[in-house]
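The methods section describes the discrete structure representation at length, but only in general terms. Since the whole study asks how a given chain folds, the encoding of that fold should be made plain. An entry of this sort, consisting of the sequence and the corresponding backbone structure tokens, reads as follows:

. . .
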Amino acid sequence: MATTLPKVDVVTVGLGWTGGIVAAECSKAELKVVGLERGEKRGTEDYLKIHDEYRYAVRYELMQNLSKETITIRNHRKMPALPMRQLGSFLLGEGLGGSGTHWNGHCWRFLPYDFQIKTMTDEKYGPNKLSKDYLLQDWGVTYDELEPYFYKYEQMMGVSGDDINPFWGKRAQPFPTPPMKKTPILSKFEGATKKLGYTPFMLPSANLSEPYTNPDGEAINACQYCGFCERFGCEYGAKTAPEITVIPTATKTGNFEMRFRANVVEVLKSGNKVTGVRYLDTLSGEEFIQPAEIVVLTSYVMNNAKLLMVSNIGEQYNPDTGKGTLGKNYCYQILPGATGYFEEQMNTFMGAGALGMTIDDFNGDNFDHSDLDFIHGGSISLTQTGSRPIETNPIQRDTPTWGAEFKKNSIYNYTRTLGIGTQGASMPHKENFLSLDSKYKDAYGIPLLQMTYNFTDQDRALHKYITEISANIMKEMGAKTVESRTPITDYDIVGYQTTHNTGGTIMGGSPDNSVVNNYLQHWDAENLFVIGAGNFAHNGGYNPTGTVAALAYRSVEGIIKYSKSGGSLV
């Protein structure tokens, strides 16, 4: 029998970036907040020996345990969905900080085009640019409305950058800290792209270029360029993460309590409101009910969607009828690019997760799509993230994958290989969606989330176009051999691609086309808020974290307002 705990003002489900932002802002506003995290507590002091590539990058120490909960995946509805038994295509974070602990630190603002993609595409190219199978829609909020919240998150993180990109949205304030070091490798990319007529700029980074103290008084150190960012915590406290910023800010107020090993299995609802959540202690198996005036789902994309589904809140999307919104518009990302093999040695082993240069000439609608069979594009970057020894074995395609020749080429190319990669946009398709699996359950008896997803003709056309541009840049950089990324066919979970999953709990201007309004308040339960990349109506040409954080800051402003007066915020 479940133990009912004392009621609080706000309960968050998950303690990553969104949960941390909600906790910090609500607790500063004198609301009593409980943060439930199903993973463990952790922090900078736990990362003093973090440079263990096998433990963290191969065995995924900081990631979700798939033996307890996973998802099932299929390419189409006639295909049986099978459980993902080991992490591959994407990496689900778990524990304090969530994916905000093991991220690379790319800090982008989505383009103005992204937020009004349906309106702007129709105005320029007509309503039939893509077929009706693509479910394009505006987000219900504009870039200009979000701009102050973008800057609020940049201030909190201390983002390092330089406002010289002519293609992104107008900024009201400069970046809090200057850009990171422009290394010889990045200068090589800069020179080549300028010769080709493009406009390179330093990637906005949460690996800070200098020590910084944010407006809440939290100190973030300067990056040491050690090359251990993605899949790792930072032992220097130099990669901005929730556990060194928003979580300490919330804790200092005295209004915030964290509970770990607390796996939320249901959101409790009565009428047009939720009353709290039910969770299990993953060690003892004890069951608890946490009543709250306001419930905020701040877990990962897939977990937020699953919780709504198992709690029967909202109408499940039906691809046959087009009705329902929960699970709709799941999107991934497309990764065009090219690899270059050089003669000269470079310090590829040094770097940082967000040390890079980018061009936006082929992102969003920054180039003419009139004669192209796709829309949008992607940010094209060369990043110097550090080549770690276990998983870095760069060899040309005609090299055997074992034996003496493999070893010789791998060692030779280790400091002579560079890659250009693109965060390619993904458009929603009526056959790509999330639902509950009817067969498989997790360790707690809850149905697994089911992903139905495959690459589309739009994806394949975008990938081919941007890959050719990437290869041309690499040739201009002077590579002796250039290998373009192979064309994409069907989506496969084998091999890491990106953890930039979006959609399923999308935002919009009407309950007819979205799960939440533009304050991320659920249409069917006014005191329930759902925050994360699941709110994206499509996936853009950047990493999603910055846009997620901006939406979180705007949402928490609405949460505080709701706590005082109630009702719908739109």
